[in-house]
Prior knowledge:
Structural class: alpha/beta
Helix content: 40-55%
Order of helices and strands: HHEHEHEHEEEHEHHEEEHEHHEH
Strand content: 5-15%
Largest sheet: 6 strands, parallel
Shape: elongated
Number of strands: 12
Radius of gyration: 29 Å
Number of domains: 2
Amino acid sequence: MSNDTGTLRTRALFPRPFLLCAVFAVLSTLLFAEIVPRYAPGLLRFEHVLGDVRTSYLADQLPSQHPHVAVVSITDETLKDNKVRQPIDRALLARLVDAIDAAGPKVIGIDVLLARTPPPDNEDLLIDAIKRAKAQIVLAAADARIDLPKAHFIQQEKLIAAIGRPAGYINLATERDWVIRFKALPLAGSPYPKSFAALLAAGFGIRPEESYRRIAWLREPMDRSDTFLTVPAEILLKAPDAASQNLRAGLKNKIVIIGGLFPDIDRHLTPLTARANELQPGAVIHAHIAAEMVDGRRIIQLETDSLALKLALLVVAALAFLIGWRFRHTSQGLLLGSLATVAIIAVDTFVFWRWRIILPIVLALLAWFLSEFTGRYIGRWLGARSTGRSKWFIK
């Protein structure tokens, strides 16, 4: 642009970039914290994917197996002599409860839905075994979020009432991409206000913290053992021998979760397995949640409606706008944009590694690039075009 004499304009049309910066930062924050999550929720799926990458590489890792949680697996090998595979024979469950209780655990969690009764009717055997157990017993229950016939819910409520032990809802929240990342919240009006994992932790003597929805997963231990001691049910059901005695001893004073580990039932993608497209049994996922509560570990995720997120986006947008304005006539802005990307990723990685906080990295990157781009081109339009020395924010 030239003035009346034909010379280049040296005075800015709007010499107050800080005011423009403040206005644009507020608008950018409004866009990415309020509008995008509401009208373009699919964009936030990238946040979940990046969160999965952080988890798979940086989740907590123990030296060896978890010291307080174990799993007893019911598999096809366990049921090879049974005529019915599902639902699991209640007489077998009764024998298993007796065998595990004899090993001296603190809590036994039965991660098997009691909504159907397999023939023959052996419910009385299971009820008696649970009532005589010395360990605390916790039952897993289905609520209205699980698609079951009404008759099955009636059967479940009847059997749980007859057993007389606490029952918690299955707290696995499946996302649209079929990955389990979060604990399910209680369902309003449900007869089961507490989750299965929370009741396990409470039975262990821990007051569980349930305000953090992200599951704090455990990576494979450093010694390459299983994350949780996993004992096949058939070993506990046969006569004790030297080999099985060591496994039984490993259950003492622990939370022991009884669950089905079948190749085609109750298996889910998790952040630990999604990259390899592998599936993890529901009982093992409940073990991760119970272990998190017992250990007091947590993962904090900044929600889009949180004040901390809005302040962070405000700062990122303001800084990017000023840098775009300052370097609007040079290629240094592109270099700084690349460096900013690396810096944002590095900060995000460090914050997760150090404090287990998941930052909204996708929103931060979008805020940065949109603000820098806007600052660059608004600066070319409204800022001075002189190449002389001046204050960097007016130049």
